[in-house]
Amino acid sequence: MKYSKTDRYPVCKSSELVDDTMMKVSIDMVDILVGRRNGKLFACDNSCPHKGASLSKGCFNGDRVVCYMHGYEYNVFTGKLENMKSWKKEDTWVEQDMEWRKSGDLILYSVSEEDGTVYVALK
Ligand code: FES
C-alpha cells in the first residue's frame, strides 16, 4: 500500500505511549520516532540528522532526544539541534573536523491522538 503525504496513519494505541517514552514506528518504510514528553506528543524522523543513527536508541534530556551515537541533542518539539557534545583533545581527528561535526535539524511530522489511537502524517 502506498501512503500519501497528506494522510495520517495510526501508529500505536495511546496506552502504549505513556509519558516520557518514545518508540520507533514505520510508515511506508519511513522510520519515525514517536513519543510523549511531559504529556505532549511528538513525531520526527528516527534517523539522526548528524550521521543517521537510530534516535530510538537514545534518551531524553528535558525536551531533547539525546542521540546515543555522538551525544547530539535535538528538541523533539522544535526539531532544533540545541546541544552538541563538547569535544576533548583526545577525540579522534575525524571528530574534531568541523565538516564532520555539522548537523541539520530534526524532520518533524504532524502527530495527533483520537479515540485511544496515535496518528502520524508524513508531511
Ligand atoms: S549520529 Fe547522532 S549524534 Fe552523530
Topology:
Elements: E1 8-13, E2 21-27, E3 30-37, E4 40-45, E5 59-61, E6 64-66, E7 73-75, E8 81-83, H1 93-96, H2 98-101, E9 110-114, E10 117-121
Antiparallel strand pairs: 1-10, 2-3, 3-4, 5-6, 6-7, 7-8, 9-10
FE2/S2 (inorganic) cluster (FES) is lined by residues 48, 50-51, 53, 67, 69-70, 72.
Structural summary, described in words:
By secondary structure, the protein is mainly β. The protein has one domain: Rieske [2Fe-2S] iron-sulphur domain (Rieske Iron-sulfur Protein, 3-layer Sandwich). 7% of the residues lie in helices and 40% in strands. The chain is built from two helices and ten strands; from the N terminus they run ββββββββααββ. A four-stranded antiparallel sheet has the order 5-6-7-8, with no helix packed on it. Strands 1-10-9 form a three-stranded antiparallel sheet, with no helix packed on it. It has a three-stranded antiparallel sheet with strand order 2-3-4, with no helix packed on it. A hairpin with a 6-residue loop joins strand 6 (64-66) and strand 7 (73-75). The protein is elongated. The relative contact order is 0.24. The model has no long low-confidence stretch (mean pLDDT 90). The structure holds FE2/S2 (inorganic) cluster (FES). FE2/S2 (inorganic) cluster is lined by residues 48, 50-51, 53, 67, 69-70, 72.
